[in-house]
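Below is how a single chain appears once it has passed through the pipeline. First comes the sequence as given, then the structure the pipeline wrote out for it. We keep one example in the README because the format questions we get most often are answered faster by looking than by reading.
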Amino acid sequence: MKKLQVKKLLLVAGIVAATSGLSGCSQENVVTEKKELVVEAEAPVEGELTLQNEFIGTITPVEEVYVVALVNAEVTDSHVSVGDTVNQGDLLCQLDDSAAELQVKSANSSLATAKASKDLATGGQADATNIQAQANMQTIKDNQASLQDKFAVINDGKEELEKQMNELKTAKQNAKQSYENAKTVGNIANNYALNPTDEASKLALKDAGIDVSAGPEAAITAAMVAKEKAKAAYEATKSAYDQNYPVLEAKLEELKQSEKELQRSYDTLQHSLSYAEQGYNLSNGQIADQSEAVYQSQVNAAAVGVESAKYQQDMYKLTAPISGVVEAVNVTENSFVSSGTAAYVISNKDSMTVTFKVSEDIRNTLNVGEKIKIDRNGTEFEATITEVGQMVDAASGLFIIKGNVNAKGDELLTGTSVKITADTYSAAEGALIPYDAIYYDNGQAYIYVAKEGKAVKTLIEVLLFNDTTASVTGITKEDNVITTWAPQLSDGVEIVIKETNIEEETEEKADE
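Resulting structure:
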């Protein structure tokens, strides 16, 4: 805010006394007084008035990444814990890559077969090639047989899980039906109590195992007991179903996923076997001689297969994509991780971000590059706004503001809440006067201005105000605004003013 020297006007009461002359010993003295209102006033100040608002924000690192598993597998080794510092490329955990390793071996076998086929056609090493081709084919067939055994184990597991799930479902349905039947018997017992001569009710109760010989009340009691037992049995069965069925269902889904992985491995082996058989047939002259370019293309294709298999195998190693601190670990050794799971959270805390939410009106007062203040338990930091939200946050209905904080992670921890102070509304075109000098009449603001020894009521418009100061229009810097209240203050009241410099008064008080 631009500050100007302000001269404060003190209005001092002037007393004009007129004393009449004495006209003899018998005449009375007559004294008349004219009192003028004592007030204080000061000239308006040219400058800008700015308001500040406070918000609650959350601290996060500028760079934060989620390390996501890309395959379904068991965690065999976990190398880091929360709080550890890692470098880019460090191994975080190892997943069970048995199936992927098998695919790599199969791809290498295909590559060897393709090279052998090329050597056969160009070098004439038929016998060696035939032996190699036969060995490759036998290896592939052995691997396929091993996979078929695993298929059988998985199928047995699926059948057992489905059997248990069906048993739970059937038990729940039967218990529910028994409970419904018990409620029906209870209703029949009530009808029987109302009409003891109803033979149909008696017969129905007998069929349900209720002894009607002891009378309606005993029949009702027996029916209610049977109903409560059926209800308890149903609730117990339903509880067992709710607890165990989702677990069995999840295990069944894991087996299905494993079955898909095995099927992909089997398909890869079958593809390799086709290449091996093709090479073997070439070595025996069953396929016409091809040009070297054709064989080279097969070798190239097989090499791509090896790279693809190695790429798939690399997915079973989770490594740090950035250097930083491990914020969260969501996997443990010997546990199963699913594709898409965020296994680790790593953040680079060299710089931090503060995020807070504001209304649309306040959002329109904030700009990128604007400075804001951060307070965390009495410690202040400076921040710069880096992002002003362009759309409403669906959850809160507010706009998201982000700023870069001049602090590191050891000074402001991730996720902590802080108090934010930001300049929001401002007014530069008005004159600054004390807020206490303003009065209101039916919503219309006005002040009193000292002019020619009188207080003049002057209408104004208030642009902006805080606890002590207001920015207004309707007056000029030459106007002397009356700043004190008095019950006699009104439009046209007479005043006398005496000029005093505020800065001189402030220095005198400081000396005291």
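The chain has a mean pLDDT of 82.

See the next section for the split statistics.
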